[in-house]
Amino acid sequence: MSKLPVVTARQVVKLLTSIGFESLRQKGSHRYFRHPDGRSTVVPMPRGEDIPPGLLRSILQDVELSRHEFLRLLRH
Question: Could you write out the DSSP letters of every residue in 10-64?
Answer without folding.
Answer: HHHHHHHHHTT-EEEEEETTEEEEE-TTS-EEEEE--TT-EEPHHHHHHHHHHTT
